[in-house]
Amino acid sequence: MTHLDIRDLALQAGFDALFAAPLSRLARWQEASRDVPQARGLFYDLPHRYPRMRCALILIKGYKPYRARPGLVTLSAYYPASQTAYAKAREVEEILKEKGHLALCHPPVPAKPLLVLSGKGFYGGNGLAFLEGFGSRFAIQIILTDLPLHQNIASEESLPTSCRGCGICRDACPVGALQEDGVNVARCLRALPENRPVPEGLRPLVGNSLLGCDLCQDCCPKNHQAGKVDMPEELSRALDLPALLSGSVIPLIPWLGKNYVRKKRLQARACLIAGNLMRRDCLEQLLELAKDEHPVVREHAAWAIGRILSPTSAPG
Ligand code: SF4
Ligand code: SF4
Predict the structure, then answer these.
(1) Does the pTM exceed 0.85?
(2) Distances from the Cα of 9 to the Cαs of 17, 20, 94, 183, 301, in angstroms?
(3) What CATH number is attached to the domain comprising 23?
């Protein structure tokens, strides 16, 4: 297959751009990664682990963020885009194999650092990878192949520019997670651990979001070209708050994948949303969940009940 065949294959599968990164250069990238906080300590020894692979295909799926959904459950549009890209990458992998090539989807390589270190993207002050034409609004998939591709197979040729360093994202972060020297992941709302209760002071900041925090992307001038779209109706139905509180999460699997759709994790988050939205109609369910076997669900439900019944609370 030529690089043009590969490009057509990826575009037909629904990707918006792709690049080829030769594995022979990975040692150099590993060296360069010492200066990139996001890449430190990550795995790059692919030539050793996969000696027959020659190149990493970097597949890009852009997306537009969802419009705000006041009073309703929402989530970052990144997650459905990422799930779509995951499934599409499998299709590309299968076709490459059918054509007699070695192909391995989802290898253990950090995808966004690979994009940046191979010279196609750059990091912004919000700690996220950016790609010219997409801002930070894209999902990325990697496929290792034995194809000896070494040229830029994207239609966009002169890619990297840089973060403007304006600091708007830092000012927009409600928890001060963005600092001069990078992201303090321990504070970031996008990285809240699921096995521990969300710290009480952060619970109102979760707002109505089941997954993700988009504030430092929404405000970034590099992202303003993306525009916003309505959430698909079917996804919106799957985010019905009483249904989530009841543990009905299976309808979310096609949108988010099984990794994200864990019943207790989503129930616990739904409790916070019910509290933040002051959903009195959910009180009966919350009272039941306050006796749940899962300690995080219990604690979040109790907090939500207290918030809803507090005479001084206002909707978050
Ligand atoms: S995702 Fe949210 S909490 Fe995390 S750094 Fe960005 S604005 Fe701050
Ligand atoms: S808001 Fe400004 S500093 Fe932050 S990532 Fe965007 S361009 Fe860079």
Answers:
(1) yes
(2) 11, 14, 11, 36, 48
(3) 3.40.109
